[in-house]
Every structure is written in C-alpha cells, then in structure tokens.
TrEMBL record:
UniProt superkingdom: Bacteria
Residues in Radical SAM core domain copies: 154-387
Places the protein is found: Cytoplasm
Keyword field contains S-adenosyl-L-methionine: yes
Protein name according to UniProt: Ribosomal protein uS12 methylthiotransferase RimO
Function summary: Catalyzes the methylthiolation of an aspartic acid residue of ribosomal protein uS12.
Native source species: Albidovulum sediminis
Sequence segments annotated as region (Disordered): 1-20
MTTase N-terminal domain span: 27-137
Binding-site residues for [4Fe-4S] cluster 2, renumbered to this chain: C168, C172, C175
Free-text remark on how the cofactor is bound: Binds 2 [4Fe-4S] clusters. One cluster is coordinated with 3 cysteines and an exchangeable S-adenosyl-L-methionine.
UniProt record similarity statement: Belongs to the methylthiotransferase family. RimO subfamily.
Reactions this protein catalyses: L-aspartate(89)-[ribosomal protein uS12]-hydrogen + (sulfur carrier)-SH + AH2 + 2 S-adenosyl-L-methionine = 3-methylsulfanyl-L-aspartate(89)-[ribosomal protein uS12]-hydrogen + (sulfur carrier)-H + 5'-deoxyadenosine + L-methionine + A + S-adenosyl-L-homocysteine + 2 H(+)
Length: 456
C-alpha cells in the first residue's frame, strides 16, 4: 500500500488495466494513455472499437503488433512527457501510432520522431482506426471476439469515468484546450444516462462525471430535452443519482447555478464533493488569466454551500507564478486559501505553453520565485488538510474498497476521488473484502493526506 505524496497532480489518468490474453494469431495492439481522465475515456473508446474488430489488447510493448500513444499537450512538461513516451514505444516496439491532444501539432511530433506510422488529433477515432488497419490488418473471429455491453474499460471494474461533453468555451490565457479540442459539444442527456445505466448494470459502483467544463453541460444545445431527460447539469446529476451508484462531479466551473447541485448532495443523490478549478484568488491575477475576478463572492458561495451541506468536500487546483503575479497577489491567494479552508488542493507552477496567449504577457516570474511560492502554498494546503483529517478521527465513514492485499485494504471515503485524493487504509479484518465493496469504518488515525480505520 502506498500513501499519496503532497504534490499530487490532479490531471493524471490512472494506469490502465487490461483484460484477457490474445488467442493464437489474433492481432494485438498496445495502448499508452497519457494525460487526464478525459483522455482515458478516449482510449477506452478506441480500444472498444478495436476489440469489436477482432484486435486483442497487449499489456506490454513486446507483445503488441503496434502501439497507440494517446498524448497530452496541455503543458510543455506534458508535451515532453508525451515525446518521451513515444520514443520509449518506438525503442521497445518500433511501430507507433500517435493520437490525442499533442496530435493537434503533427509537425512537433514528427520533427522529434519521424518514424511514427501516423499522427491524429484528439477524439479522431476513425482516423486512429484507419491507421491501425493499415499498420496491422484486422483478423476478426465473430465466434470468439465478443464484447460486453460496456466495452473495454481501462479502470477497475468498480468505478468508471463518464464523459458528458467535449471542448470548452472559455478563453483562459494559459490554456490551449479550446484550440486542441474545440468549443463545447455536449452529449444528449439520454445517451449519457443510457451509458451510465449499462455501467451500473455491469457492476460499476462509482460514476466519475468528467468534461472540460461540467457545469456548462448542455449550454451549446440549449439544454435540449429528449426521451424525458434534459441536458442540464442539475437534471443530469439528479438522473444519475437515481441509479444507485456513487456519483462524483469533476471540473465544475463556479457558475451561480452550481448552488442548485448542493441540495442533491445534502439529499444523498450525488456525493458531497465538488472539484472546482479556482486557479487563483487575487482579482488582478484572475483578470490577467481572463477568468472572472470574483474571489470574494466565491468565499460567500463556499460558505453558502457548507451551510446547505456541511459534509461537502471541496477540491481545487491553483496556478502560482502566473506572469505579473506580485508577492502581494500571492499573499492574497494564501490568505484566501486560509479562509476558504479547501479540503483537497493541487497546485501548478506556471509554464509557458506553445500557442497560449499568456506567453506574451509581461513580467514573467523567475523559476526560483515560482518554486518558493509553490512550496509555501503547498505547506499551507498541507496544514489545512492535516487539521481537517485529524478532525475525522473517531467518526464513521462510508468507504469504497479499491484494492485488497495481504497487508490490508486500500479504500476511499466519499471525500476522495481515485488517483488524485487521499486513501483510507484498513489494516485488520480485511480478508473478506473485495474491490468495489462499500463498507462503514471508524477512523482511528490520520496523516496529512490519508486515514486509517477499522470495520464496524
């Protein structure tokens, strides 16, 4: 069992899990999925289509006839990681197809790795399939190659990401997601519900709702209603909450109508958990970021959410060292964090990203200052987290079991999303537990980010 480090990145997808071995002669495709959970959903869709066409999924480079690398291009560090992964796949396998966000810059990829077989952009599923067909012709066996209704999942069986829209209408100066993935495109509500119903029927106990901007869901289609379901985040959350699984909302932009979600959390229909990317607190910094400068009002909203749902968990991400950030502005952020008392916090040091408008802003912050501010910010966030978790000692918590081994069970409370938040560990009496079980524990120990407890 491992404990989460204090500098968790909130944008990393979990490591993919693979299923049955290939039959003799079956073409095999490997997959490396980088970036956020939204990219992981894209990888699942690609592999589901490939499995339906007769391909097996290889868990390693050597066993694959070709490898797909689903890249991230959000930060320059992520681009470097993607190029490194492509190079690793080329060295180990030699036949590589590149897709994903970095695929929107094909010359950038082929300039570093000219031997890749093909480059496609984000959510270009048909082009990826075409490239695979050329590199490794399919050889389907209709009597053997059967898929479950839920398709291929790259996460454990008991939880699944549920993507409700693609793209984003915001124009934050540090972000190039709209350039790579386009403007907001929402899925019809009845299609989302149908997918969720299939997942729950297949044993999924937790649905993690994701998009680029979850609270804007349905705006582009004017909150259209079809088959009795309206494309609005409040309606969708209520509908999902009726399925009997945990429902966790990610990437919720703090629009005023977010307050309408809080009663659903108080009622137990969706988890009392909001993942909201505040990014900063000083109005001038937010203005330079091209984000609404309403930090003071945000504190009022947080107080209102907590009044309506005292058990709510608030997670957020922030950027320190944004161009022009002064020590006074950073201190405002620290003071705001101290007042907001957020439960889960991630932080990035600002990086230039090719194509981002923030690159041209004046007064870039030196790297050593960014590092110092990051250290101070995380120290404050850690102290808040430690105090909040210490207050949970002696309480009873409902938890979901993620893994069980000889040492104990690794679980999560309702306040913890997989991979990005903390864990609750059960060290004794865990032998009968299985992944996906939801049980009640009494918390008897806490650290800065994790809890320990016993079954009750």
């Amino acid at each position: 069992m491992t404990q989460n480090p204090p500098n968790l990145r909130p944008d990393l997808a979990p490591k993919p899990l693979f299923d049955a071995p290939a039959r003799p002669g079956q073409p095999r495709i490997g997959m490396v999925s980088l970036g956020c959970p939204k990219a992981l959903v894209d990888s699942e869709r690609i592999l589901t289509r490939l499995r339906a066409e007769g391909y097996a999924i290889s868990p390693d480079y050597q066993g694959a006839d070709a490898v797909i690398v689903n890249t991230c291009g959000f930060l320059d560090s992520a681009k470097a990681e993607s190029l490194e992964a492509i190079g690793e796949a080329l060295a180990a396998n030699g036949r590589v197809i590149v897709t994903g966000c970095l695929g929107a810059e094909p010359e950038y990829i082929t300039g570093a790795h000219p031997s890749v077989l093909a480059v496609t952009g984000p959510h270009q599923y048909e082009q990826v399939l075409d490239a695979v067909h050329v590199a490794v012709p399919p050889a389907p066996d209709p009597f053997v190659d059967l898929l479950p209704a839920t398709g291929v999942s790259l996460t454990p069986r008991h939880y699944s990401y549920l993507k409700i829209s693609e793209g984003c209408n915001h124009k934050c100066r540090f972000c190039i997601i709209p350039d790579m993935r386009g403007r907001l495109v929402s899925r019809p509500a009845h299609a989302v519900l149908r997918e969720a119903e299939k997942l729950v029927a297949a044993g999924v106990r937790e649905l993690l709702v994701i998009s680029q901007d979850t609270s804007a869901y349905g705006v582009d289609i004017k909150h259209a209603e079809k088959n009795g379901h309206r494309a609005h985040i409040t309606d969708l959350a209520r509908d999902l909450g009726s399925l009997g699984a945990w429902v966790r909302l990610h990437y919720v932009y703090p629009y005023p109508h977010v307050r309408d979600l809080i009663p659903l959390m108080a009622e137990g229909l969706v988890l009392p958990y909001l993942d909201i990317p505040f990014q900063h607190a000083h109005p001038e910094t937010l203005r330079r970021m091209a984000r609404p400068a309403a930090a003071a009002k945000t504190l009022d909203e947080i107080a209102r959410w907590r009044a309506d749902c005292p058990e709510i968990t608030l997670r957020s991400t922030f950027i320190v060292g944004f161009p022009g950030e002064t020590e006074e502005e950073f201190q405002t952020l620290l003071d705001w964090l101290n007042e907001a008392q957020l439960d889960r916090v991630g932080c990035f040091q600002y990086e230039n990203v090719a194509g981002a408008r923030s690159n041209a802003l004046p007064d870039h912050v030196p790297d050593e200052v960014k590092q110092d501010r990051w250290d101070r910010f995380m120290a404050k966030a850690q102290a808040i987290s430690e105090a909040k978790l210490a207050a949970k000692v002696g309480t009873r918590q409902q938890v979901i079991v993620d893994a069980v081994d000889s040492e104990g069970a690794t679980c999560r409370t309702m306040a913890d999303a997989p991979e990005i938040d903390g864990n609750l560990f059960i060290d004794e009496g865990h032998a009968a537990l299985s992944p996906g079980d939801i049980v009640t524990v009494e918390v008897d120990e806490a650290s800065e980010y994790d809890l320990w407890g016993r079954l009750v």
